[in-house]
Design goal:
111 residues; alpha+beta
């Protein structure tokens, strides 16, 4: 499996079962699909805060690497996610790499 095929499979999965989100950096934003789930206290990453109101989004790098993307990789702590009508602060970002290329982004956010 190549990085490109892994990203293509993720894009197809998110198109089928993802939720629309917008990722903001300041006033700039990118609209994309994400798989979002609420986290239990046991699922929090080291250094994260309380599990109450914490979510994890699985994102594809595709929207952030497109020509002219308003928000580019790497995503950063303090970027924000607009999900279900509320803008929430990203508290943790984990890029999943394959062959030196980001193939998936896991971003935890609160709010």
């Amino acid at each position: 499996m190549t990085p490109a095929s892994t990203i293509a499979r993720l894009d197809a999965s998110l198109a089928r079962s993802g939720s629309p989100v917008s990722v903001y950096r300041g006033a700039a934003y990118v609209e994309c699909q994400a798989k979002v789930k609420g986290l239990s206290a046991q699922e929090l990453r080291p250094g994260s805060t309380s599990g109450q109101g914490t979510f994890r989004a699985i994102l594809s790098p595709t929207a952030f690497t497109a020509d002219g993307a308003a928000v580019t990789l790497p995503l950063k702590i303090n970027d924000a996610v607009l999900f279900n009508g509320m803008q929430r602060k990203i508290t943790y970002v984990w890029p999943v790499m394959m062959g030196g290329q980001v193939v998936r982004i896991e971003a935890d956010f609160m709010g």
